[in-house]
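#struct-pred

JT: dropping the chains for the assembly here, can someone run the whole complex?
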Amino acid sequence: ETGVTQSPTHLIKTRGQQVTLRCSSQSGHNTVSWYQQALGQGPQFIFQYYREEENGRGNFPPRFSGLQFPNYSSELNVNALELDDSALYLCASSSSGGMKDTQYFGPGTRLTVL
Amino acid sequence: QQQVKQSPQSLIVQKGGISIINCAYENTAFDYFPWYQQFPGKGPALLIAIRPDVSEKKEGRFTISFNKSAKQFSLHIMDSQPGDSATYFCAAMRGKLIFGQGTELSVKP
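RK: done, full complex below.
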């Protein structure tokens, strides 16, 4: 059983650019949630995808968007990057069954915006 | 809006001692309370979790105590070891996870 994987590990972009981050969910999980973790802070919920549909969104602007694919993997897209977008982006997967609240996190993608 | 408050921000404990981290929440609709451990450069790893119909849950050296009326819960790490040195996050869930600010634990040998 493979865990949650994310790519790339690190990324450096400049203000105004666009970025796509990728996540593969744990085997058997059909729900993916994305979180932003600023340095020294707890993760903040961005949005969740279930069966390829957005299923809840946190307090993030529309330039944060996502996708979920039929194999349950997911992408996070951020347009018009700002300096404050520099953070660790975490993906977490869970199942919709009896353990639906248990979220397992990937190692994250460290995004630096210059 | 801060819905989960965690304290202390940092904690230093001697090897073999007990580490205690506290959290308080506001929203009574939360129905699942996990604790995560995070090492530098890594994603959070689930340690232990509890639901509000249980007052205590123990897994190995880790215990969650839950006080529903006070809207508080805490993590106790017994026989703390240097390898436990990490940042610990409490969280509360109602569809999405709301995290506390984190506690940086350092266990001195």
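JT: nice. The radius of gyration of chain B is 13 Å. The mean pLDDT of chain B is 95.
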